[in-house]
Amino acid sequence: MTSYHVLEITYDYNGQKQAICPTLLQDASETILIDCGYPDFLPLLGEAAKRYKVPLESITKLIVTHHDMDHIGSLAALKRAYPHIEIIAHELDTPYIDGTKKALRLQQAESTFDALPDEAKPQAEQFIRLVASIEPVPVDRTVCHGERLPWCGGIDIVHTPGHLPGHMSLYLPASKTLIAGDAVVIEQGRLNIANASFAWDLGEAVRSVQRLLEYDIDQIICYHGGLFRGDVRQALRHLIHAYTS
């Protein structure tokens, strides 16, 4: 028996209420967390998991959809607290998680800093410091597009680049569920591209949405927005049309 839980974590950011949605998958032998929030989110993550009677120490594996700081910020703290957790990431994203290469968001922020107006530079400096402070963590297992992980009824790796080159989503064929990461988000009840103006390659991000049409999806779990149900194919087509028409 496989189950999943959407861990909605709410927090304040610059006086505004925000939310992220890591996901827990469970079967008889595995408890798998997908993404883990910002730095210092371990207590919030523990509270969210506790609502489903899942202690953090029971997590066996952690799958990273990509290396943005709201997805890996607490990765090092989790690994320190629970060294048995196996870290899994896409092969293209792994060098940015383990520190072999400088984080792409850090490169992006540094390369655009000089062109910013002076009033925007203090916030940009704060962002650069925060991204630079993310601790590297060794990746235990790398995966690639089309690979099926054997746990929780099967977890298909779907490479969905664009937001970042190594971004991946996860498809659960047993429940026809897509865990999207940041491939798509929910905004005002509709699917959209995540932070389109900051996408590493917006055209690639749209092509990744097109790739999702190859899968029989009944519901999508978005890291930003939570659970999307309804006519998924139609919603994906509307999104593609909005960026290609």
From TrEMBL:
<dbReference type="GO" id="GO:0016787">
    <property type="term" value="F:hydrolase activity"/>
</dbReference>
<dbReference type="InterPro" id="IPR001279">
    <property type="entry name" value="Metallo-B-lactamas"/>
</dbReference>
<dbReference type="InterPro" id="IPR036866">
    <property type="entry name" value="RibonucZ/Hydroxyglut_hydro"/>
</dbReference>
<protein>
    <submittedName>
        <fullName>MBL fold metallo-hydrolase</fullName>
    </submittedName>
</protein>
<keyword id="KW-0378">Hydrolase</keyword>
<comment type="function">
    <text>Counteracts the endogenous Pycsar antiviral defense system. Phosphodiesterase that enables metal-dependent hydrolysis of host cyclic nucleotide Pycsar defense signals such as cCMP and cUMP.</text>
</comment>
<feature type="domain" description="Metallo-beta-lactamase">
    <location>
        <begin position="19"/>
        <end position="224"/>
    </location>
</feature>
<dbReference type="Pfam" id="PF00753">
    <property type="entry name" value="Lactamase_B"/>
</dbReference>
<dbReference type="InterPro" id="IPR050855">
    <property type="entry name" value="NDM-1-like"/>
</dbReference>
